[in-house]
Design a protein that fits this description.
By secondary structure, the protein is of the alpha+beta class. The protein has a domain of 60 residues: Roll (SH3 type barrels). It is built from three helices and seven strands. The strands form two sheets. A four-stranded antiparallel beta sheet has the order 4-5-6-7, with no helix packed on it. A three-stranded antiparallel beta sheet has the order 1-2-3, with no helix packed on it. A hairpin with a 4-residue loop joins strand 6 and strand 7. The longest helix is centred in the first third of the chain and has 27 residues. The protein is flat and about 115 Å long. The termini are far apart.
Length: 189
């Protein structure tokens, strides 16, 4: 029985080698055995250029006939430069307006005044609470956005605002960066 299995194995090996050779030759050699391909029957557009079919678009060879067709095409644009990103500037003619018949007399004024400095920005702290007990200094509860501070008189809040005076209804705050004082009233909520 051993001789039969070895001959069977040899035949299977021969068949596999032949199949491998066929597959290698099919992948390495061009289709059709290297014979010249017939002209394509792809549709022709009005400019005389053919549209490439799916089979031709996968062919990596250079098609000189298609290049010759594309070189003969002349660009007929609408007068726009397709190589400029910005549109061309068109000069607008100016209309001359005649002077008024009567011009108001200008009243001479003194030298122009320098513009006044802009007002300092408002202090955007919110005074929402007050606390004071026997023998302790009053405390103010202040907030700015999600930040909350508990401050006594003389404390600096948020490295910018100094608490000058605290009363049950208002707190006087000095903005140290802008040299501005403002009284903030107690608010609910």
């Amino acid at each position: 029985m051993k001789p039969e299995t070895s001959t069977t194995k040899k035949w299977i090996a021969v068949v596999l080698v032949v199949l491998a050779l066929v597959m290698v030759t099919r992948t390495l050699l061009p289709r059709g055995g290297g014979a010249p391909r017939p002209a394509s029957t792809a549709p022709v557009n009005p400019k005389g250029m053919r549209a490439a079919s799916v089979e031709e678009s996968l062919d990596p060879r250079l098609r000189l006939d298609l290049l010759d067709n594309s070189e003969s095409v002349v660009y007929e644009g609408a007068g726009k430069n397709i190589f400029r990103a910005a549109p061309e500037v068109v000069a607008i003619p100016r209309v001359r307006v005649p002077p008024l018949l009567t011009q108001p007399e200008e009243v001479p004024q003194g030298p122009p005044q320098p513009p006044s400095p802009p007002p300092p920005p408002p202090i955007n702290l919110k005074f929402f609470g007050y606390s004071s007990g026997k023998g302790e200094k009053p405390k103010a509860f202040l907030s700015q956005g999600d930040n909350v501070w508990i401050a006594h008189e003389g404390d600096v809040v948020n490295r910018q605002y100094k608490i000058v005076r605290i009363t049950p209804t208002a707190v006087e705050v000095e903005d140290l960066l802008n040299n501005n004082r403002q009284s903030i009233r107690l608010t609910q909520g």
